[in-house]
Amino acid sequence: MTSTAPARRNFLRSPWVVPIAVTSAVAVSLLSQPLFASGDSNDLPDVTADQLVTQVLDAKPQAMSGTVVHTARLGLPDMLFTEATGADPISLLGGSSTMRVWTDGVDRSRVALLGTMSEYSVVNDGPEAWTYSSSNDEAVHYSFSDADLARLKTMGEQARVEATKKQAELPTPQEAATEALARVGEFSTVRVDSQSTVAGREVYQLIVTPTTDKTLVKRIVLSIDGETKIPLRVQTWSTQDDTAPAVEVSFTDVTFGMPSESVFGFTAPAGVTEREVVVPLPQNDGAVKGSGSAHEMPVVTGTGWGTVVEFKDLDVAALLAKDPSAMTGSGERIIGSEEAQKMLEEFVPEHSDGSGMDMGVLYDQLTTKVPEGRLLSTTLLSILVTNDGRVLVGAVPAETLRAMA
């Protein structure tokens, strides 16, 4: 029977999911130091930090499956999670969540976020993706138009990979680590610590430490499988708490080998609500364009761990009420095509998520009123919504954003 309950918004597109993304997104740049693994715990060959970083970046993608536990200690109110029942990406913002993952190592994957009696699944198959929530009996199919599919065929391999990334992805150790290691530069030091064991596998431990005190990130510890060089655990520590990681994504069991073909297929269960969403393929300049005006790119200030991203002309109150025109000060569409406009609405929150959580009330409870606007502070990320319609985001202390306002 098709559910008549209000469609719950995809919380992976919520501004509240940003603290999770900081696990990978703020891990910019590494400066390798020639320190060796001690080899005390395992029998893995000694390796320098520079060699290990190179090996991880050059590692061949692996077909694999396993169980991942995601734990967040971001300092957010407990009420945020006690009101969220069942398997829902919002649960990734606090406490521990369990996911099952499968990948063919190329372009097909499945991730299932497990609740006590529910499941939220994401299935990726090349240029297509599906999400399914058993809590509200809804399945969403994301695809490209025929014209954009033709464009994809003319792109280089890396461009295709970037273009087909889905916003519905759930975090895994590989995703959290790859972004960190992909940006080698001058903003961090990295060393190899004592070898250890994760999910029954011998691992190297790579410790990334920012060279600045202008960030909330104290260090990131990556546990790298000694054989495949695949990251099996990523721990992000905050400067505000050295007793436990602020965010940890870790395999508890893992099997390297091709999963069953059946896990990559998706068929919506009988009776669920099904929606089709055509994803607009970004133009070369990164803006999504149509017959209307292009979306203004955010302003980036600072470098490395102290980077702050500023979005302009956002009416947060209207966004919480699901008004797409709030994305611009003029009230006009920022995306011209009908398909793109539908996609935009996917990124805009419902007034309620279907379980009685009023997003406006939630916003008021999570943020604190300051002279500059409203402030959300977590152990890894600060977000300031200014009175003049700007949003500043960074893995920096709240005072940094307030000074910029």
From TrEMBL:
It comes from the Bacteria. This is DUF2092 domain-containing protein. InterPro entries: LolA/LolB/LppX, Sporulation_related. Signal peptide: none annotated. Coiled coil: none annotated.
